[in-house]
Amino acid sequence: QVQLVESGGGSVQTGGSLRLSCVGSGYDPDNYCMGWFRQAPGNEPEGVARDWNGIKIYGDSVKGRFTISRDNAEMTLYLQMNRLKLEDTGAYYCVAALAPCRGLPITQFTYRGQGTQVTVSS
To answer: What's the whole-number mean pLDDT along residues 75-91?
Structure first.
């Protein structure tokens, strides 16, 4: 059974940084695409970043500010978020899908964690 557990959310001022972590279990990370999406109240889910086989793809709103990385040996996915903006506020979810995942929206990945809240204030 695939399980994903996020941590690292919190409150931060604009321009600050946070690092999210997602520890997984129950799957072979070498065979899984991993990613993050977020959702703010009243908004549609938004794909943030995805990582598969060394290829990293970012949503336009976070390019140049966020970095996705993974440590397969530790079954951990990370999201380093820098220069945070008010509009980055939301619940962030770690997701996973069995490869191949080309063309599959991050928001439709098979497995999802419970989410971690990020709140950016001025």
So the answer is: 98
Q: Both tokens of residue 105? A: 């929206």
The whole-chain average pLDDT of the chain stands at: 96
Residues 59/44, Cβ–Cβ less than 8 Å: no
d(CA 35, CA 93): 8
Q: Is cis: bond before 100, omega within 30 of 0?
A: yes
Rounded to a whole number, what is the distance in angstroms from the first to the last CA of the chain?
Answer: 41
Alpha-carbon distance 13 to 22, whole Å? 23
Q: What gap in Å lies between CA 113 and CA 118, rounded to an integer?
A: 15
Beta carbons of 24 and 3 less than 8 angstroms apart: yes
Task: Write the DSSP symbol of residue 8.
Answer: -
At 120 the pLDDT is 98
pLDDT in tens, 18-48: 999 999 999 999 999 999 999 998 999 999 9
Closest C-alpha to 34, from 64, 79, 66: 79
DSSP-based three-state secondary structure for 42:
coil
Average pLDDT estimate for 97-122: 95
